[in-house]
């Protein structure tokens, strides 16, 4: 069986920042979806996120796995910065998903998220590489406190910082009726999960849902660039003897099938000894 995505996507500067440092990609065949959130002075953030997205796309097109493509994107961002002093220190998050048969294989670094809406329940399927996420995991901060913590925009992993990057991989076994959301933190710092859930549940068309999410984030202040990709899943039988049948599955279990497939050397805290704080923007 194969999953087919019907996709709506938007990126928006928001209401506060002068430029948009986020980048997004939806490949023409609809199999690859990517969100990246850049950081760095001058044009650095824009260049970093655009370089990451373009490299990821090219590498996947060349047959590389999505996680190897993220590793290549890291090198590409570093090399671009090496060649231009004004870009030094730039970095970017990246969250990219590729349809492989009836699964979505997601590789991610940073705090741009992937969510899955299934059977009326919204669940975040990526784990943020951020200071507050680590503090929550350690029991030192509640989710509510994290929303207003001054460290909420500090991430612990990014592309463009070091030669080696630890990439998390999550595989989601897709079902007909699933809705996926990839987004930058400009959405999730403005809207809490229940608000995101409400918009996704109430807006049938994926393009309209993408617009509604951006509009809501702007209405809440639009403090950062906002990028969203909404992808609706149809699972079809692979064509046999010219016969393609759309499948209408009724999921019977309420828990999404999400498996964490660790890349070598990943991703327990013990396995990341050289992790360092990385602020996405200069302190204000
Ligand atoms: Mn951001």
Molecular structure report:
The protein has 284 residues and is of the alpha+beta class. Helix content is 27%, strand content 28%. Helix 1 packs across helix 2 and helix 6 runs antiparallel to helix 7. Manganese (II) ion binds next to helix 5.
Residue-averaged pLDDT: 87
- How far do the termini sit from each other? 51 Å
Write out the distinct hetero groups bound to the structure. Answer: manganese (II) ion
Q: Any idea what the shape is?
A: globular
Rg measurement, Å: 18 Å
DSSP E strands, number: 14
Unreliable sequence segments: 249-277
Main pleated sheet: 7 strands, antiparallel
- In percent terms, what proportion of residues is strand? 25-35%
Helix content: 25-40%
Oligomeric form: single chain
H and E order: EEEHHEEEEEHHEEEHHHEEE
Helix tally?
7
Q: Which structural class fits the helix and strand makeup? A: alpha+beta
Feature tags:
alpha+beta; binds manganese (II) ion; 7 helices; 284 residues; 5-stranded antiparallel β-sheet; 27% helix
Compact description:
This protein is of the alpha+beta class and 284 residues long. The chain has helices at residues 44-61, 66-82, 131-137, 143-148, 185-188, 193-202, 206-219, and strands at 2-12, 22-26, 32-39, 91-92, 94-100, 103-109, 113-118, 121-124, 154-155, 168-173, 179-183, 226-236, 258-260, 278-279.
List the helices and strands and how they pair.
Blueprint: E1 2-12, E2 22-26, E3 32-39, H1 44-61, H2 66-82, E4 91-92, E5 94-100, E6 103-109, E7 113-118, E8 121-124, H3 131-137, H4 143-148, E9 154-155, E10 168-173, E11 179-183, H5 185-188, H6 193-202, H7 206-219, E12 226-236, E13 258-260, E14 278-279
Helix pairs in contact: 1-2, 6-7
The structure holds manganese (II) ion.
């Amino acid at each position: 069986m194969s999953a087919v995505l019907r996709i709506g996507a938007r990126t928006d500067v928001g209401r506060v920042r002068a430029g948009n440092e986020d980048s997004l990609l939806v490949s023409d065949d609809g199999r690859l979806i990517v969100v990246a959130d850049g950081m760095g002075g001058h044009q650095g953030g824009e260049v970093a996120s655009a370089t990451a997205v373009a490299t990821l796309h090219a590498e996947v097109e060349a047959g590389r796995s999505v996680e190897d493509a993220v590793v290549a994107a890291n090198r590409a961002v570093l090399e671009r910065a090496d060649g231009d002093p004004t870009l030094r220190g730039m970095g970017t998050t990246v969250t990219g998903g590729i349809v492989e048969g009836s699964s979505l294989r997601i590789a991610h670094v940073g705090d741009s998220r992937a969510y899955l809406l299934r059977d009326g329940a919204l669940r975040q399927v990526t784990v943020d590489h951020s200071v507050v996420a680590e503090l929550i995991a350690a029991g030192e901060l509640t989710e509510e406190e994290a929303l207003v913590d001054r460290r909420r925009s500090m991430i612990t992993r990014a592309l463009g910082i070091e030669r080696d990057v630890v990439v998390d991989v999550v595989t989601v076994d897709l079902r007909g009726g699933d809705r996926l959301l990839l987004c930058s933190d400009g959405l999730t710092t403005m809207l809490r999960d229940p608000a995101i859930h409400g918009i996704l549940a109430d807006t049938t068309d994926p393009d309209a849902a993408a617009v509604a999410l951006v509009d809501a984030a702007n209405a809440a202040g639009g403090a950062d660039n906002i990028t969203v990709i909404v992808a609706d899943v149809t699972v079809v039988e692979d064509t046999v003897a010219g016969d393609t049948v759309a499948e209408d599955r009724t999921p019977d279990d309420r828990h999404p099938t999400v498996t964490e497939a660790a890349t070598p050397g990943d991703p327990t805290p013990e396995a990341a000894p050289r992790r360092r704080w990385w602020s996405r923007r200069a302190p204000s």
